[in-house]
């Protein structure tokens, strides 16, 4: 077992595993949510990102780690059909993303994926309510204002509906972005460095909210991070350890002739 995984499991053993609120995020279902084989991607002539094969069941939690530049955000972008696999295969929620037409990708993403990006991307000119309503437009569905209010209430920020993003604290903006991510009851929630700019208490809160949202919706949750606090926070709110996926540093571009060792060499 790589040292990295061992370190995470050690965190687990030390942590309290008996959270009364969230029992486990591993919903008892055998349905596959993410399956990849020999997946590779490169931006132009840049470094090759070679991703490990995975098979992730619906309802699981996956912790995606790896050094900066190893391809964590790119893996999420592949899962969300923001970019297309260049080599290998990737199936998400039963959809082969290698064959998903670009014109269909936006609607597919809007319905299947709840994306919590590293930068929250709330529109500055729109209220919280309207920021969330935009998600219905993206999915080609009629706006459901009541659903917006319901999700904001679930995340404890119903009273912020008429505020502008500039009137929110960092933690409040994070809750609003999470509300937007789960609004369409996605089957897969992707969070990119969700604790990056948060203090310890807010980081713990953000991870707990993500797990709660995933459990509530029966969704699979993927958290990309290089923040060790995330594993600690997950350990305090889940009974089962998450699936651990560690990305090694990127390989040099094809033909560059530079040797590259494994991350654990
Ligand atoms: P991580 O999230 O693990 O830090 P990224 O997926 O952001 O890694 O990046 C992986 C590699 O791809 C890095 O070398 C990065 O510089 C490069 N990269 C990421 N996005 C782009 C892009 N839009 N254009 C060109 N190169 C990119
Ligand atoms: Mg990243």
Brief rundown of the structure:
The chain has 265 residues and is α/β, with parallel strands linked by helices.
Please describe what this structure looks like:
It is built from 8 helices and 10 strands. The strands form 2 sheets. Strands 1, 2, 3, 5 and 6 form a 5-stranded antiparallel beta sheet that branches. A 5-stranded parallel beta sheet has the order 7-8-9-4-10, sandwiched between helices. The longest helix has 18 residues, at 200-217. The chain is an alpha/beta fold and 265 residues long. The chain has helices at residues 3-14, 72-79, 102-112, 128-138, 145-154, 170-182, 200-217, 228-237, and strands at 32-42, 48-50, 54-57, 61-65, 87-92, 95-96, 113-116, 188-192, 220-224, 243-246. The protein has a domain at 3-122 and 182-246: P-loop containing nucleotide triphosphate hydrolases (Rossmann fold, 3-Layer(aba) Sandwich). 35% of the residues lie in helices and 18% in strands. It starts with a helix and ends in a 19-residue tail after the last strand. Bound molecules: adenosine-5'-diphosphate and magnesium ion. Residues 72-73, 192-193 line the site of magnesium ion (MG).
């Amino acid at each position: 077992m790589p040292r990295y995984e061992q370190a995470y499991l050690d965190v687990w053993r030390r942590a309290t595993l008996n959270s009364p609120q969230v029992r486990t995020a591993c919903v008892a279902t055998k349905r596959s949510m993410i399956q990849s084989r020999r997946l590779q991607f490169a931006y132009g002539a840049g470094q090759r990102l070679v991703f490990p094969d995975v098979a992730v069941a619906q309802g699981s939690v996956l912790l995606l780690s790896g050094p900066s530049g190893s391809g964590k955000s790119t893996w999420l972008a592949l899962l969300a059909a923001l970019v297309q696999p260049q080599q290998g295969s990737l199936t998400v929620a039963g959809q082969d993303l290698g064959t998903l037409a670009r014109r269909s990708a936006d609607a597919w993403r809007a319905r299947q994926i709840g994306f919590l990006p590293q930068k929250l991307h709330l529109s500055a000119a729109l209220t919280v309510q309207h920021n969330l309503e935009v998600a219905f437009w993206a999915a080609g569905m009629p706006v459901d204002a009541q659903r917006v209010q319901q999700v904001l209430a679930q995340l404890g920020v119903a009273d912020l509906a008429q505020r502008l993003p500039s009137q929110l604290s960092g933690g409040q903006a994070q809750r609003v972005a999470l509300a937007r991510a789960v609004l369409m009851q996605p089957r897969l929630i992707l969070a990119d460095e969700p604790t990056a700019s948060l203090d310890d208490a807010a980081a713990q809160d953000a991870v707990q909210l993500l797990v709660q949202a995933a459990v509530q919706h029966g969704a699979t949750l993927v958290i990309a991070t290089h923040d060790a606090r995330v594993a600690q926070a997950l350990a305090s709110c889940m009974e089962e350890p998450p699936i651990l996926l560690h990305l090694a540093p990127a390989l040099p571009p094809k033909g560059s002739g530079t040797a590259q060792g494994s991350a654990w060499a």
